Model the fold of this input.
Amino acid sequence: MSKVILKTALKTLLVVVVVVLVAFGVASLGFPSDMAGLCEKSGNYSMATGYASLSYTYSKDVNDLNRCFTDSVYAGNDSDIVKFGDKLIADEKFTEVCESITVIKVKIGDEEIEVPIDYKQYVYGRLAAAKYRSGKKDEALELAKTAMEEVSDFPKNNALAILSLQVSESGDKDMADKLLLEVQTRTPADEDKAYYDTLVDELNKVGK
Done:
């Protein structure tokens, strides 16, 4: 009698598992955007990137492409950052995305705060840093310089600054010297001078 009950229980469990797997598969293929959202809420940004990528394959919407990029940044996956970042800045609607995003959410401890940002500089900076970490140093520098072509001063969190912080953290003397030369061609606004001076000091510590 106990064997019959055990077999019945195992069969029922197997059916439940199959149903769950089928439902998961349907949700994954049919609702990738929703699945990406679930993964983001759970902090699994690697899986979120995959689902966002599937959603972008269906939609070709630049906002889905941007989601791929931001999820890959949060996941810390340099190959994905480069892959989706290159596509994002080449998209004809990239400017529209940058105009629509003026703040990003940053988690400090258990608190999440909104930080004002120039989204173009953020994307170019994160992409440049990822390319630098991937060994594409010259490409990274040119990318950061390109982002600053229409910027006359040196605002906080610009692409050159983001790349400079990565290079300083890496202790790369040659790259620090190259960045220092580029940074010092610029004059910061009064409100950004302390930020600029701190960045120059950090590059000087690594370079020369």
